[in-house]
């Protein structure tokens, strides 16, 4: 497709070169760039073009083009917007997806750009309307209907009782108060999303100064706020049902039609089965699916053909009076997943890359010839680097080998040696965001048997349940491990064969040779990694073809040891092979072999020379994340575009797909049975492969519970507030509490601590942070916690068996100021750890006071001796304040039980004054309170 730059409107030159939004309004049939301060402000009489540029991980840009048509815009303006969108796409290289947006029926993708909603204002350029800024005009009472669980479609309806119904959410905006009316048949998620609109209206139209009230359908006049609401409608009366057209919508059941755009006409294409082969690269087609219409444009079509197809689609919608159909325009090679899913089969195609003579390269050359700045137009691919683990690598690791339906704990010296025929369970506890985190995972060797894999999942699931679902669970396959697994083990050796009973029985019954590793036998290891905290030795077939110039190797038999240094290796690789040599064969001296200068003995052990590779083995790369809401039990998913933390609803299950691994996030309010099925949900997601990205069944799956999100999950969200995931109650209750409170729910927001990652720690003594293995075989690496933390952990007692997935009935505040869920989580992890490890060493202090003393010594703080007075303070005995009390104190703040202790009791129980206690960090306060059953 040729692009004439002289015909390109100057307003479009040089656009789409950076991540973000760019918006134009059609004025006198020309695009006029809008200032960023006007983004999100739409007028009913205008047409707009919106360009969303997204920078992808592979170094390229993705473009989404939308043209938005106000309900009062002229047909000529609408047609101009459609044609200019095609031209803008051509200037961007012809790869953008184009969307036709009609006021009141916008796509969810467009609405995510302007969260929480779009609320068009009357007027427009063509009408000569003098736009009056919000807050400068006299307030008019308005009634809006809100629909949508994930994004909100807001529509103004007549201010009358007849506009209300039982199925939707309504917002009544009066001069002094905003009411949200929740229809009895509306869902929790819709109610929560509508509250975002209430907040928007309050901030935009009332400068944040007005009251907010929630009215439940059916409360009638018994509630004061409900009575005030119904009085505005002249009193209560029964509400009507939705009309059939409102319930079913338009154009939802139309038969799929395929039409070819040929010389200005649309010709129907007959087919028995909709196949990809029906589309020819030199033509444009319309795929009419009723509620959705796709315009497909072949790569070989001209700009005029594409404009004609776009005009034909517009005319078809107008002639058929289809006001709610969405129109998407896609280019061959860059089709959307939804478009591909309409076909019975869609062949896998390699990613199209534009040459310097095509697409953006051609446009860049033309722009440069006109003296325009084209910097950034052709963005180069980023250099591949070792991914960040986003996990503290100084934690405590335990590993079990699965034997049949049981597990065997491995010693600290053996837990880094795993076999490809076995299955393993590991538990790793570490310090996260000022709280204890726990990762429980399974690792399946390539030759492990199915029965032991199932046993591993079952046993690990029971461990997660014992931790009250507050541990992250991982399912890993050999060869597909994420970086978090490697830094958890730090130094790892993977041997051939297996030691488990299941593997031994399998090879015996199958008549196979047992090739399990033997120190006295012949073995070849490939050494890989990025540093002392991430290094592995993988046993491979002892033949020359297993060598690779980009790696170092260890070769040994009973009497000799060789190290082989590939020509493409670095000094870091040489250091790693020496470290792994200490772990595998430290009792014999080694002989170094440089590639190309090997001895005859070396080749003799490998059975002679042969060809081998020189390219580094590439692992699955993390891709741009996609968030999906799982609709249970229908086993359907819905993608959430441009997601943020607020999209995670406490009542739902979500899947975050990053290609090389996926996360299954489970909200606190999800049914307990569904929580146990989180791993199954992840496996079904991999099978369905909704993004058509050829996901492997062995892709890593993490399951994450709300309130226990690790940093390697939260990093995919633009901003993450731990406070939000620690609130109790439904998503609606939480947001209503924050909205009415008018302030952020947590003042002391936990800060992430600096991770101790090789090559990334600054200003730290690495010897104090690292768990790495020394090069000396006599020096054993140390794992564990600080003495103070160990002392405190030993004094923990299980405070309660209450299921944390439901809010405690007696709690008055939806959001405790102290981080309550964290302490319960730490207690659960401590219970689990103690049950697995057995009794701790007797040298650990047993009393809470000793723990507190250790903490004070570690932090350099002590108790204050200032006098305290109980006069005017509400005081209860300690026995009535504990969480297990049979006669609990009435009317107290359950998140601050310690404030009701007398001064004497406080000193006796905590071993310090109140002033000294409140100087401690929140997490230390909560640990002490949990130990005393005061939380």
Give the amount of beta strand, in percent.
15-25%
Gyration radius, to the nearest Å?
32 Å
Question: Major β-sheet, in short?
Answer: 10 strands, mixed
How helical, in percent, are the residues?
A: 25-40%
Question: Runs with pLDDT <50, length 5+?
Answer: 247-252, 351-360, 366-383, 743-823, 832-866
Tell me what you see in this structure.
The chain is built from 26 helices and 32 strands. Helices cover 26% and strands 21% of the residues. Mean pLDDT is 81; it is low at 247-252, 351-360, 366-383, 743-823 and 832-866. It is an alpha+beta fold and 935 residues long. The longest helix is centred in the N-terminal third of the chain and has 18 residues, at 188-205. Helix 3 packs parallel to helix 18.
In short:
The chain has 26 helices and 32 strands. The longest helix has 18 residues.
